[in-house]
Structure formats: C-alpha cells, structure tokens
Amino acid sequence: MKQLYIKQKVFSLSRKFTVKDQQEKDVYYVEGSFMQIPKTFSIMNTARDEVALITKKVCSFLPKFFVEVNGQEVLTIKKEFSFFKARYTIDSAGIEVEGNWWDMDFQILQHCEVVGKVNKEWFTWGDSYKVQILNEEMEAIIIALVVAIDCVKADHAAASSAAAT
C-alpha cells in the first residue's frame, strides 16, 4: 500500500500544488489554468510529463468535468438537476466511489474491489487529503479523481458565493 498526501495552498490564484509521498517528496505536480476557458487541471509526474487532465465543459447547462488519464477519458463528473441540495454523479467504466465524496471521505472501487481510499485531514491550513493507493496501477486515476472532485467542490463553492452576492 502506498500513501500520498495532497495539500493545497489556500491563497494560490494559479491553483498549483503538489502531491507528496510519506517522506514528503514530490510525486506529482498539479497546475490549474487561471483565467482560461475551458478551465483545466494538469497532473504531471516528477519528469513533468502529463499523466492526467481534468477539463470543465464550457457549454453545458449544468457543470460537467471530464477526466483523462494517459490521453484516455476515464470518467465524467456531472451535476444533477436538483432544487435543494447539490447532487453530482460520477460516470466511468468499472470505477465507483463509495462513501461521502463531498466531504472527501470515501473509497474507490474498480469492479467491486477497493483500489484506493481518501480521507480529509482535519485541522490543517488549506485542504489536505490522505490518499491510500491499494492498486498502484490505478494511482494516476485515483489522484486525478481526487483533484477532479476537489475542483467540482471549488466550482460549487464559487458559484454559491457568487449567487449570495
């Protein structure tokens, strides 16, 4: 089992952060586009090769995010129409998320087998997540999924605060 940690910088406009291992060495770099359409997040390995890309669909009635790993689209996160509480679904081939993914406390399954677990670290400055990789072949997909869900949450928070003003 491999453990990785994602800690975002609270006041980063460019939305750049790193994914670290247990020895606090950088494993992945995440860079979000700033003031660019469509909004994207690129996940790169230590050689700065892109291993995953998250893209927010521009012309969509409800928010939709696409996740590509190694050039292949592996999942889509989309908002469902709801009057009261925001609801999102994750569409993918063989990948499921069980638990409370809105609060970042869930496990990732592939064909009913747990391949990863995600837990939010509390009492930290900024959002921090502990990611356990149980199947290392799924590592890039799991990291991309965590970043995509965090992106969906940030987009939802920005829309809520804009609606409140």
Topology record:
Elements: E1 2-7, E2 16-21, E3 26-32, E4 40-45, E5 50-56, E6 64-69, E7 72-80, E8 87-92, E9 95-100, E10 105-110, E11 113-121, E12 128-133, H1 139-164
Antiparallel strand pairs: 1-2, 1-12, 2-3, 3-4, 4-5, 5-6, 6-7, 7-8, 9-10, 10-11, 11-12
Multimerization status: single chain
Assign the structural class, choosing from mainly alpha, mainly beta, alpha/beta, alpha+beta, or little secondary structure: alpha+beta
Tell me the strand percentage band: over 45%
Q: Report the helical percentage.
A: 10-25%
User: Mind telling me the C-alpha Rg?
Assistant: 15 Å
| Helix-strand topology string | EEEEEEEEEEEEH
Mean pLDDT: 82
Number of helices: 1
Brief digest:
By secondary structure, the protein is of the alpha+beta class. The protein has one helix spanning 139-164; strands at residues 2-7, 16-21, 26-32, 40-45, 50-56, 64-69, 72-80, 87-92, 95-100, 105-110, 113-121, 128-133.
